[in-house]
């Protein structure tokens, strides 16, 4: 299997981004060449109509409240708005697979490393289905910034990412609103060791001490209907897949540690662009280091005698198959069909060479954090997925439409992984039971990664956060596995039997725009919409202050000083005060963007 410019610093990134030219800034997946064209030339005299795709209150109270506030303010500026409420799976299908939406309100899963922005925004993925670039955003200059941050590390990478964030704040393919605080509760009289790791990853479920089966309450029932590791609609975060499947490396508190890989050894392999003759080769190699153009080979030795849950051995062949399959789920038998998850990680892999059953060499496009992130994908059993492809191909004419065929849409219950827990049983919309996998390497004496709890995990669906809190409080549950809705946090009892578990925010609420279609292909129109959003008031009244407003989709040290939150959005502040919209000022922003109003105050732009 084989696959074969300097960015501006923070001080000039905004000027350089705007100077990249209207053409570059307006190239979109729909092929529109000039999305900043005055839409009066295109529009008729009908009132502009937009839909907001969102979740109902019983799925996410914060989501629908954000959507309703946006709906009210859009209507105040003369836009006809329709709320399109869908279940979590249907919302993700509409946005990620069908791509049939105007705006949506949702929660982005993000990742431990800001390289997830490459997946979310690079134009390579603009026409694909899945979590990669659901907005259809395409901008060549932006692509360059995203590519450059993958090649470097340290302060250089921070500067490159700063330029990405400045560009994002100008272009607005999506608008981050806030990072919600992650609160869960657990009983202390049944299990101990809750501080060993966040429950947003596999590590939070390892190292616990207690007897019997851990009973966890989840508000989202999708885990009882779909356990396909490739599904884009069954879940946002990967915790359940982390429990069922192994990866070569595992993220723990922001750091990557060996997991399925027993050892990982890195070495440099200069690319062709870094090679030169005897007189200048040394200089060229030095330049390659500075540019980050070197390929890096990583020699991996898998842990001995690892097996999938069906008893079949896990070998280097399964690892090689995984990377090939994630790149093209048709395995070359149909037009290329990338998996709707893990696309950005797999793109960092140039080749995989099998040495023997336990040893393999992976060539990556750099040993940067982005390259290392490629080693965190779930390893799939070749014998299971290859058989699926073979059966489909043998049945007649074979096609594998990207993001839409059974390999990525099937429920895959029971799943066949190799992780610390394996599937035992499920009742749709009621519960999922996992049992400890006794042959897992975490149970070996010479491995110190935390052991699975004694018997296993039982996830019971309890749709309401407040009800889940009450059940843990009265002893009919051990843990609220899902992040609690903000309204329920104040109801956590002050009891010695209850411990409150908090985690650093990573995922964020946001508004996404379908930039494939006018008028949302116009960045000035998108900017005018984002000025209708009072993030401070949303955090106060919707999240009860259990969230942090933000102008960027990343937090902490990654945020450039000019994009730090200081009471209002530093680029597109709310047009109003204390949650009240200044309607005339907001309308003026739409007129400045090239739109016009009729005598009845309706914004025109219907087609």
Model description:
Residues 255-601 form the Solute-binding protein family domain. Residues 267-297 are annotated as: Disordered. GO terms for molecular function: peptide transmembrane transporter activity. Residues 280-297 have a biased composition (Basic and acidic residues). Belongs to the bacterial solute-binding protein 5 family. This protein has 607 residues and is of the alpha+beta class. It has 3 domains: 45-180 and 507-592, Dipeptide-binding Protein, domain 3, CATH 3.10.105; 182-223 and 420-503, D-Maltodextrin-Binding Protein, domain 2 (3-Layer(aba) Sandwich); 245-409, Dipeptide-binding Protein, domain 1, CATH 3.90.76. It contains 19 helices and 23 strands. Strands 2-1-3-20-4-21 form a 6-stranded mixed sheet, with helices on both faces. A 5-stranded mixed sheet has the order 15-16-17-8-18, covered by helices on one side. Helix 1 packs across helix 7 (154-171) and helix 17 packs antiparallel against helix 19. The longest helix is centred in the first third of the chain and has 18 residues, at 154-171. It is globular and about 75 Å long. The two termini are 49 Å apart. The relative contact order is 0.19.
């Amino acid at each position: 299997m084989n696959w074969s410019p300097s960015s501006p610093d923070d001080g000039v990134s905004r000027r350089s981004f705007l100077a990249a030219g209207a053409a570059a800034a307006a190239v979109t997946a729909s092929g529109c060449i000039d999305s900043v064209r005055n839409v009066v030339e295109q529009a008729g005299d009908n009132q502009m109509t937009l839909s907001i795709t969102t979740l109902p209150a019983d799925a996410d109270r914060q989501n629908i409240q954000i959507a309703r506030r946006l709906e009210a303010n859009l209507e105040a500026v003369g836009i006809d708005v329709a709320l399109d409420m869908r279940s979590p799976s249907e919302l993700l299908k509409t946005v990620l697979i069908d791509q049939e939406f105007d705006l949506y309100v949702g929660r982005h899963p993000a990742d431990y490393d800001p390289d997830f922005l490459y997946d979310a925004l690079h134009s390579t993925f603009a026409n694909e289905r899945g979590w990669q670039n659901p907005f259809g955003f395409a901008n060549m200059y932006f692509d360059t910034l995203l590519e450059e941050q993958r090649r470097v590390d340290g302060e250089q990478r921070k500067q490159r990412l700063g330029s990405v964030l400045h560009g994002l704040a100008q272009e607005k393919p999506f608008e981050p609103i806030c990072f919600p605080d992650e609160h869960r509760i657990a009983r202390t009289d049944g299990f101990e060791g809750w501080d060993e790791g966040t429950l947003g990853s596999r590590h939070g479920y390892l190292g616990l001490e207690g007897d019997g089966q851990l009973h966890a309450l989840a508000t989202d029932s999708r885990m009882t209907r779909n356990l396909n590791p490739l599904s884009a609609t069954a879940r946002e975060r990967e915790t359940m897949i982390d429990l069922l499947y192994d990866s070569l490396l595992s993220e723990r508190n922001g750091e990557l540690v060996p997991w399925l890989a027993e050892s990982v050894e890195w070495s440099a392999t200069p690319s062709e662009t870094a090679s030169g003759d005897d007189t200048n080769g040394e200089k060229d190699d030095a330049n390659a280091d500075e540019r980050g153009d070197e390929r890096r080979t990583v020699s991996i030795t898998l842990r001995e005698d690892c097996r999938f849950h069906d008893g079949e051995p896990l070998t280097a062949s399964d690892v090689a198959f995984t990377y090939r399959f994630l790149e093209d789920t048709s395995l070359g038998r149909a037009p290329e069909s990338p998996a709707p998850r893990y696309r950005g990680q797999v793109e960092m892999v140039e080749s995989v060479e099998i040495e023997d059953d336990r040893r393999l060499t992976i060539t990556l496009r750099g040993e940067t954090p982005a390259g290392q992130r490629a080693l965190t994908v779930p390893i799939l059993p070749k014998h299971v997925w290859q058989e699926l492809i073979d059966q489909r191909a043998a049945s007649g004419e074979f096609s594998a439409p990207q993001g839409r065929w059974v390999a990525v849409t099937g429920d895959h219950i029971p799943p066949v992984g190799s992780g610390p827990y394996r599937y035992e049983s499920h009742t749709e919309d009621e519960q999922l039971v996992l049992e400890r996998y006794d042959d897992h390497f975490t149970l070996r004496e010479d491995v110190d990664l935390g052991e699975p709890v004694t018997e296993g995990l039982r996830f019971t669906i309890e749709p309401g956060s407040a009800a889940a809190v009450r059940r843990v409080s009265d002893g009919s549950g051990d843990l609220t596995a899902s992040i609690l809705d903000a309204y329920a946090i104040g109801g956590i009892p002050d009891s010695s039997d209850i411990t409150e578990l908090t985690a650093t925010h990573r995922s964020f609420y946001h508004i996404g725009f379908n930039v494939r279609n006018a008028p949302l292909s116009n960045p000035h129109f998108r900017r005018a919409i984002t000025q209708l959003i009072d993030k401070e008031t949303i955090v106060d009244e919707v999240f009860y202050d259990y969230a942090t407003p933000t102008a960027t989709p990343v937090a902490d040290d990654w945020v450039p000083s000019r994009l730090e939150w200081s009471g209002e959005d530093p680029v597109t502040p709310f047009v109003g005060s204390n949650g009240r919209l200044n309607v005339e000022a907001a309308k003026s922003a739409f007129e400045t963007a090239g739109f016009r109003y009729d005598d009845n105050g309706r914004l025109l732009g219907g087609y």
